[in-house]
Amino acid sequence: MGFLGFGSNYYREGPGIRKDAPKKKGFALFMEIFTREWAGLWALNIVFILCCAPIITIGPAMIAMSRVTMTMVRDKNVYPVRDFFAAFKENFKKGLIIGIPTTALIAIAMYMMFQFMFLLMAPKTSFVSIAFIIIWFFVTFGIITFLYPMVANMELSIRACLKNSLLLFIVGGLRSVAAIAIQFAIIFLSMYYFPISLIVLLFAGVLSLSSLLQSFWVWPVLVKYVVKEENPQENTEETTKDIK
Predict the structure, then answer these.
(1) Where are the extended beta strands (E) located within 63-167?
(2) What is the mean pLDDT of residues 108-113?
(3) Among residues 41, 62, 133, 173, which is most buried (max CB within 10 A)?
(4) Could you say which DSSP state residue 243 is in?
């Protein structure tokens, strides 16, 4: 991968990986992906923030970032910046359609997060209110968590993606909870440490890392319920199906 995702670097041939080497899983697999793609994730984080600046373009930017990080998780060739802008342009109209309502939902989630912080610091905490905020947040982001990866990577209608997102949030189990919990933590900490968090979000690659984590947890669920791969180990063509 070249500088900022453009071009290519050439390396001296090494010993390679043994064919009979056991395939990494879980945390070890994630760290392998992260160490391989960290420079691209940093560049991806910056272009994502810049493309989100007009607010209305948050949807296309989220689709584009999901396309790139999902490609990383699937262990396919990726040029983060170039592929981001290609996906941004390709899915611009679709991103606006789903981006405007989901951006509104995210804004509501951030407002509710403020209320959550006040409730935690209040002398008399309303556990019913806290439970409502957490449930609302998890359901909202549960749908969004699966919606953008499907729109970005699969040939399904927006209606089918919305329906699948709700179902996958339910059947995803712990993977759904993990993917949503990381977003909950990022929003909470960003608000708690504002404005210092703005510098961290921009220069530490937190948003792209969050997207990589989301893709890492979501992809196996999509493979199980939505994607039909002929031979995943050879990166052959895939087809998608709507969940009945």
Answers:
(1) none
(2) 80
(3) 62
(4) -
Which has the closest alpha carbon to 137: 107, 175, 173, 99? 107
Q: CB–CB of 230/237 below 8 Å?
A: yes
**Rounded CA gap, 179 and 5, in Å?**
26
Q: Tally Cβ neighbours within 10 Å of residue 180.
A: 23
Bridge partner residues of 228 (DSSP)? 239
H or E element, residue 227: strand 227-229
Torsion angles phi and psi, residue 125, rounded to 5:
-85, 135
Whether the Cβ atoms of residue 153 and residue 66 lie closer than 8 Å to each other: yes
Coil vs helix vs strand at 238: strand
Judged by DSSP in three states, 10 sits in: coil
pLDDT at 9: 41
| The model's pTM | 0.76
